[in-house]
Amino acid sequence: MSTYHWQKSSYSGTASNCLNIAPVGDGTLRLRESDDPDVVLATSTASLRALIRAAKAGRLPAGGEWRLWSPGRSLPTAATRRTA
């Protein structure tokens, strides 16, 4: 496994459930939660930026449907939501 230079989110404070982020030489980012450091997510800066903007604007779908969303795609609406 590669060694990354992890940085803790300033919003985490002294809490144990922290978001860590690491830049990678290819221009992508790695994310992990301090409670489960073996699970590492890879993303682009553009995708993370779009996710943060959507979250701040309250545009993320409720009920876990966020996993269906990606930058450049429309968010699911009541008419287009998939049911399990």
Q: Can you summarize the main beta sheet?
A: 4 strands, antiparallel
**Gyration radius, to the nearest Å?**
15 Å
Q: How many domain modules?
A: 1
Distance between termini? 35 Å
Number of strands: 4
InterPro entries: DUF397 (IPR007278)
Domain DUF397: 5-56
Organism: Streptomyces abikoensis
Protein name: DUF397 domain-containing protein
Describe this structure in words.
This protein is of the alpha+beta class and 84 residues long. The chain has one domain (7-68). The protein is built from 1 helix and 4 strands, in the order ββββα. The chain has a 4-stranded antiparallel sheet. The longest helix is centred in the middle third of the chain and has 12 residues, at 45-56. The radius of gyration is 15 Å and the shape is globular. 0% of the residues are buried. Residues 78-84 have low confidence and may be disordered.
Provide the descriptors you would attach to this structure in a database record.
four-stranded antiparallel beta sheet; alpha+beta; DUF397 domain-containing protein; single chain; 4 strands; disordered C terminus; 1 helix; 84 residues; globular; DUF397
Can you give me a brief rundown of this structure?
With 84 residues, this protein is of the alpha+beta class. The chain has one helix and four strands.
Task: Map the helices and strands.
Elements: E1 7-8, E2 19-23, E3 28-33, E4 36-44, H1 45-56
